[in-house]
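User: Fold this; tokens only.

Assistant: Input:
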Amino acid sequence: MSEAPVNANQWPTLRGDRDAFVAEFGVERAERFNQAFWGTDPEADALFTSGHSVREIMTGLRDALASGEVTEGTLPEIAALIEDMRRAFDGIDMERVERGRLAYLSIPPLSHGLALGPGSLVHTYSTPAIADLLVNTGELTDGAVKRLAYTTNWIYSLFIPGGLEPGGKGFEHSGMVRTMHAHVRRVHQNRGLDYSAWGAPISQLDMLRTWLNFTYIPYQGLRTMGWFPNDQQIQDIFYLWRVVGRLIGIDDDLMEGLNDIESSQETLDAIHFVDGEPNKASQDLVDALRTGFVANAHRITNLPEESLLEWTDAHIRIIHGDEVADSYNVPRSVIHPIIALNTAAVTERYDMLRANPEALQAEVQKNENILLSLLTDDTSYNKQDERLTVKVPA
């Protein structure tokens, strides 16, 4: 379990009423959440408290992540991080991980992109605990296109053949995601800011919430779009993401029992209880997401950006409903009814595809080839360590 600072006994002031939380979700969950509010990632955080320069750390870390191995010359802090990442595979059924990969690839990347962009990220930005920090980096508002491309590139890397294994692209990029989180925490904490309102920056609770934004939220969203993976497919995908969760530093016990959409519901409800209400930072990020997602979709499809914005706004409403879309001032799209009418056809085609093993295999291969063609080192977290700036209150 991740370490927590001395103020870990304090329930953050903006996380709602602790007694009300206990009445709804129990003492045990309240105690674990309180630890998670303050828990971070000791192995990754140690990279920036080692006394070595950022350049020295990052040079050695890139080499270690690319190989998945440590050598006699690897700095101890880097070796500890790599060894912790390798422990993510202890006791893991790699055949089941592969089934999860193939289940993911049975759905086109563009549909996943909608579920993870207008779907997951709108949900990510709804809590000030995350939204304020992301706006402070300046990267997700001032550089939305670039940062969304980094996240998309990382996700693609997880689902290519061998991507998660030590030395694979998914392993490498996951290590950089983890390192970037530690870098942001270091910059914020070095300013001596007061975190009594929400807890530690990029805490274990925040990371768990984000993990659900790559599991529960997109697959619930895909259902609204007509994609209905069966129970086994969903459980295999969640199983794969549990490995990813460990790779990026989430405490394993926080993900325990979160095996599919239904089993994750109570945990997500508990997280929503302590989320707070969306604020201006949430609105700014949703606005930047719409712009960034359209720009990235235009690069892939070459369709007019005006049409893609209509398409994006329609999917925000389809996935989240009118109440959420209205709260973020997302315009009503004229193509919304057309997309909604096509949902049944999407479901029928997907069911027919899975009933034909040869057709399914061909679809998976096609989608895998698309991921491979879209992967690039030019838009990856590997490029960002020293260029990240953080704007924090004086």
